[in-house]
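Notes from the 1:1 (GR / supervisor)

We went over the backlog. Supervisor wanted to see one worked example end to end before approving the batch request, so GR pasted a single chain during the call. The sequence is below; no edits were made to it. Supervisor asked that the structure be written out right there so they could see what the output format looks like.
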Amino acid sequence: MVFKDQHILTAGQFDKEGLFVLFEEAKKMEEIVKSGRDSDVLAGKYMATLFFEASTRTRFSFEAAMMHLGGRVLSNADMKGTSSLRKQETLEDTAKVVSQMANVLVVRHYEVGSLAKFAKGSDVPVINAGEGPAEHPTQGALDLYTIWKERRSLDRLTVGMIGDLKNSRVQHSQCTLLKHFDVKFVLYSPESLKMPHEVLKELSGHEVKIAESVEDLVEAADVISVSRVQEERFEDKNEYRKVAG
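Structure output shown during the call:
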């Protein structure tokens, strides 16, 4: 799989071979950072982080990584409130303009389909850092990297997933990536927040069980992925309160 100059918009872009190429490269970079040294591999390069939704871990990890690798960062943590979209500028136009100032755009947006618009307008690669309830491919890949390091394999594991499975873009991307491996799934969520059918369809050929309780899931799983119930995805706050715990 060739990554150079490609947009990274969906976990569906990755195959097994491509994931392992990423893991080996990430491991090398991680060892450089842990040694107390920084790299200059991205010297002279600029990354723009354009976040239309709140973020701590994702934005900081992208920005810290860029700086550890010798690059520089242009950052707006409140694009929704402070960018030229307030002046009716389109996402495509924003992407076109910012892509003249940076070598890569890292974008988080609350609406499904927005990242495709950014990619259409941009002259440089766009990386999806979370798109509404749909996908979060870089977080999904990072989670698989963590499992790979800790368990020394991504095969012959039972992965438990609990929480807001309907709206968790991270768990959707995890499923899309884990389908390439010999993995069983155990799921647990409120009835109204079940894993979407289109995600389950991707897991065809894998054993998928619905746990009867949290305890059953914990007992069955080798690895557990937990998501919060996401208030921002509910139009009816009464429905949120019913499942918030």
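Supervisor's comment: Residues 84 and 94 are 8 Å apart (CA to CA).
Batch request approved.
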